[in-house]
């Protein structure tokens, strides 16, 4: 059983609605095998989180690098929000410990798949925004991207 208090401490956010946090980690394969599970899969959250991640990152780059042209900003943003970067952040946060996976996905190494990790991180960003608001989602996202932002070479 996942210890949600440990995760909330790790991300420095206390959720008002714990089911939003849990939903961020429900893979579609789990729902396929557990159709009576009371929490939906994370796909809609992943959609929202992806959009928020791109917006927050674009806004930060826009302000941080006022003289850079659009093409360079797009290039940097793409590097910052790529699957590899998101999976690295997810791994540091130990997101794989919280994933609800179906048996097949679990057996095929789903807890280490970069796609699953990146998608869950995007869903987590959405869960934070839905529970705490956009400012808290921005704060979390920029804190987690901080090391990568500092590596940006112009």
Query: Roughly how much helix do the residues carry, as a percent range?
Result: 55-70%
The secondary structure category is mainly alpha
**How much of the sequence is in beta strands?**
under 5%
The whole-angstrom Rg is: 16 Å
Count of helix runs = 9
Shape: globular
- What is the terminal-to-terminal distance? 45 Å
Got a strand count?
0
In this structure, how is the largest beta sheet organized? none
Stretches where pLDDT is under 50 for at least 5 consecutive residues are none
Average pLDDT score:
95
Strand/helix succession? HHHHHHHHH
Compose a concise summary of this entry:
The protein is mainly alpha-helical and 154 residues long. The protein is built from nine helices and no strands.
Characterization of the model:
- The protein is mainly alpha-helical.
- 68% of the residues lie in helices and 0% in strands.
- It has helices at 4-11, 18-23, 28-33, 43-64, 70-80, 83-92, 103-107, 114-132, 134-151.
- α4 (43-64) crosses α5 (70-80), α4 crosses α9 and α8 crosses α9.
- The model has no long low-confidence stretch (mean pLDDT 95).
């Amino acid at each position: 059983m996942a210890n949600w208090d440990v995760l909330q401490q790790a991300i420095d956010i206390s959720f008002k609605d714990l089911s939003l946090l849990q939903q961020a980690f429900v893979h579609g394969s789990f729902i396929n095998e557990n159709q009576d599970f009371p929490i939906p899969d994370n796909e809609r959250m992943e959609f929202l989180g992806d959009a928020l991640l791109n917006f927050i990152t674009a806004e930060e780059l826009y302000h941080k690098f006022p003289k850079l042209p659009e093409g360079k900003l797009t290039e940097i943003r793409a590097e910052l929000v790529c699957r590899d970067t998101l999976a690295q952040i997810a791994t540091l946060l130990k997101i794989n410990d919280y994933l609800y996976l179906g048996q097949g996905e679990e057996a095929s190494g789903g807890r280490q798949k970069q796609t699953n990790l990146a998608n869950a991180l995007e869903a987590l960003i959405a869960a934070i925004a839905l529970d705490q608001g956009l400012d808290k989602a921005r704060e979390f996202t920029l804190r987690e991207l901080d090391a990568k932002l500092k590596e940006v070479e112009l």
